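Something for you to look into today, if you have time. I want to see for myself how the chain folds. Leave the record below and I will have a look.
***
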Amino acid sequence: MPVVRDLRVLLRLTNFRRLLAVRLLSQAADGVYQVALATYVVFSPERQTSPGAIASAMAVLLLPYSLIGPFAGVLLDRWRRRQVFLYGNLLRAALAACTALLIIASVPDWLFYASALTVTAVNRFVLAGLSAALPRVVDEERLVVANSISPTAGTLAATAGGGLAFAVRAVSTGSDAMVVLLGAALYLSAGLAALRMGRNLLGPDPELVQPRLTAAVASTARGLVSGLRHLSERRVAARALAAMTLLRFCYGALTVMVLMLCRYAWSATESEGLALLGMAVAISGAGFFTAAIITPWAVGRLGNYGWVAMCAGVAAVLEPALGLPFTPAPILIAAFVLAVITQGAKIATDTVVQTSVDDAFRGRVFSLYDVLFNVAFVGAAAVAAAILPPDGRSIPLVLGVAVVYAAVATAMTRWRER
């Protein structure tokens, strides 16, 4: 198979393997940390969770970073990306350890959220850098395959990290602090793994690097404006980002629905709800892996726009068919299907952005990409909070998401024909 052949070629590339190792360790830590936060906020016995509480938690964790994300992207285009991976992961290890101490101390929620916010902010910074650095270690001919393997492998690593977090929590009799400390250890490993790559390997080009913080910050406003102007001139990338933002909105709304179903509708105890959530996470991981296999083949036949249109069209049909019964089996099947669709569309979008945006602007464009992801997810949580009943069963939400999927499929089909 061409995919298998290209995969073998990519894995022979030393620098690709090293960058992939940083991603795997970093996103495994993300999975551990996110499960710890979810179980602490949603499944703690002493907490009565509501859709509004989930939406509030997402807003606290994601929206503040969305305000500074574009500025971080400008810095990402001026700092050595290898150094970002090194110091960013070391910083996250320290901050995650602080979060564990706050959980043990049972501090007020605002202080806990402030600590979690800092980890999330650095996390988005590192992920944007990983995407921006990928073209520096892979030739353009195999970039689609690399985008299938690298982000999807990272998502699988996050899924595996989430599974490990569930296991550690069970062994440690529900200690969320122990799970967070495990995440801190993985962040530390990711930072040390970055040392295996050269300082200048991942770009940006030396003439663009401004190692002094004051020099980089001084050019932030000008760089942001130029980055937005550059994206506006690359309509192929801008349209793909718009479509992916809407698909992320759909996925976020359905995620909140599944959380509430697991917590209240499908289980009598917190442990049963956690087991169902763990199953949904594992099934989604299988969907992400499947997307990595089939996307290069599909893009080769349909093109990037055509594949995104196909993904959205399939979701528009299958999401209500599987979601409206509101029973575990069909919705777990939907978790697999929507994971394939969302990840497949993301792989295509990543490729469009990487191939149509100049290297000097990739960091800030991918940071904008992450901001759109955050805002879409938080917006979806807010909409879900307004619509969902306490048990998570909502026909209007399921049908509304299907309409959005259909609109994305129609728009991408028209843009592809043009």
